[in-house]
Amino acid sequence: MSTYRSNGPRVAARALGAGAVATVAVGLFSTGAANADTFVPLPDGQKLGPGVTISRTGEHATISPSLAANGAGRVAWVSGLSVAEVTATPEGKVGPSNGASNAPGTNNSSTHGSSRMTTGYIVGCQISIASDAISASASGGVALTGANASGSISLKLGPGDVKFVEIDGKEITKPGTYAVQYQDQEMQIQGCAGYAQARAYTVVEIIGDDYSKTTLYGAPFSIG
Predict the structure, then answer these.
(1) pLDDT means per 10 residues in the chain (224 residues)?
(2) Euclidean distance between CA atoms 77 and 24, whole angstroms
(3) How far apart are CA 124 and CA 114, in angstroms?
(4) How would you classify the pairing of strands 162-172 and 115-125?
(5) What is the DSSP letter of 33?
(6) Could you tell me the fold of the domain covering 38-121+165-191+201-222?
(7) Using an 8 Å Cβ cutoff, are 131 and 124 in contact?
(8) Which helix (H) or strand (E) holds 216?
(9) For residue range 17-52, what is the model confidence (pLDDT) as tens digits?
């Protein structure tokens, strides 16, 4: 995983289409049907907001059965590049980082004296991420988790559970281009005996008198 900031050229992205679940695999890394790794390509996306343009490119996921082989576990490795081109923001000062508070409507992002970019995934068990997860976030009915010391993310989900998985974030202290890139970020899902879905999110909060929050969602995809 890497992050960068520059004032370089714009990263091109095409608009994200309708939120159909991406379930068609175009590659299998193993010929054994029971242990096949499924490659899921995902579309690029772009969202314009006050003072910011967010784009996501090169996103894909690789889905594998869990080594626990209990029917309730599976593993996803996700990759992608999220870029925020910020044209207007006060030059804030980064304050103490207490983490996202999961307050209603925040999408599990938070600001601490500066504007901020946060990217991650929404993961749900036996629930449609296309609509219900976003509604749940507005009511504060979801939980936030992040990577452990080894860089792996472990989720325990029951039927109807939704969790926000924060991959990384970037403080925005002045106008410019900010990005978060991640490669094969591992997410382990346990306890979900039914179908599971996930979708990427990138949220940019701009502080100041004209506070704004712009969120780009990715296409939902099946984790099995």
Answers:
(1) 44 37 44 68 97 97 74 86 95 64 52 82 85 49 50 82 88 94 92 89 89 92 88
(2) 16
(3) 31
(4) antiparallel
(5) G
(6) Immunoglobulin-like (2.60.40)
(7) no
(8) strand 212-217
(9) 334 455 444 444 433 444 578 999 999 999 999 999
